[in-house]
Specification:
218 residues; 4 helices; 2 domains; UDP N-Acetylglucosamine Acyltransferase, domain 1
Length: 218
């Protein structure tokens, strides 16, 4: 019963945001390299409050992103920079996240105020004159957040995160992270691997005290 009601509400919300989505579709046809219209609407839908906002954001992105599951949660204030993003089932993003070009796989959790950038090669410097080169979409890379990843609050992600890993709050990840490990710090570094518990139904993590002591107090 609940799933049926949820499906009906999702479809109604898709109808509500359909005019917005149509303008984005027209943009892709008339100006394939532009995302100005999409950016305008992503800012508007990001500030829709409460539970209605959650449904309307999800509906909008299900019609405009490369893929967005209707079983996902997109928090208040979260914006997307590129239409090429993929959001699979049971993905959760907290409030005020900034997401570039990313592939968010099933069951991953993105903490509030986190930034998922489009790789680490977006801004390049001319070594001859020392000037920063103009932004080019050719430098955009889609990062991948694998299944069951937990990204802590305020983390900055510029690389891929392996399945089942945990990124500590405030970490800055600029190189790929392997599966089933914990990383923390700036730049993010290995803290500990996940270890299966004795009953094999849960996972425990042993964190180095030295690593924890090295983190600034907030």
């Amino acid at each position: 019963m609940y799933s049926t009601i949820k499906l009906i509400i999702n479809r109604i919300c898709q109808l509500v945001v359909l005019p917005l989505a149509i303008t984005c579709w027209l943009e892709t046809k008339l100006s394939p390299h532009s995302e100005a219209v999409f950016a305008f609407w992503t800012h508007i839908v990001s500030i829709l409050p409460g539970l209605p906002g959650v449904f309307l954001r999800r509906a909008f992105y299900s019609l405009t992103l490369e893929k967005c599951s209707l079983n996902s949660h997109i928090g208040f204030g979260t914006i997307f920079a590129h239409r090429g993003t993929v959001i699979e089932d049971n993905v959760y993003t907290g409030i005020y996240c900034s997401i570039g070009s990313a592939y968010l796989k099933k069951n991953c959790l993105i903490g509030s105020h986190s930034s998922l950038l489009s790789g680490n090669t977006q801004h390049q410097r001319n070594e001859e004159n020392g000037e920063w080169m103009p932004f080019s979409k050719d430098n955009i890379n889609r990062i991948e957040i694998a299944e069951n990843v937990w990204v802590g609050e305020g983390a900055i992600i510029l690389a891929n995160i392996g399945r089942g890993s945990l990124v500590a709050a405030g970490a800055v990840v600029n190189t790929n992270v392997k599966a089933n490990i914990v990383v923390a710090g700036n730049p993010a570094r290995f803290v500990k691997s996940f270890e299966p518990s004795s009953n094999n139904t849960t996972t425990k993590v042993k964190v180095s005290e030295e690593i924890l002591k090295s983190q600034p107090e907030v």
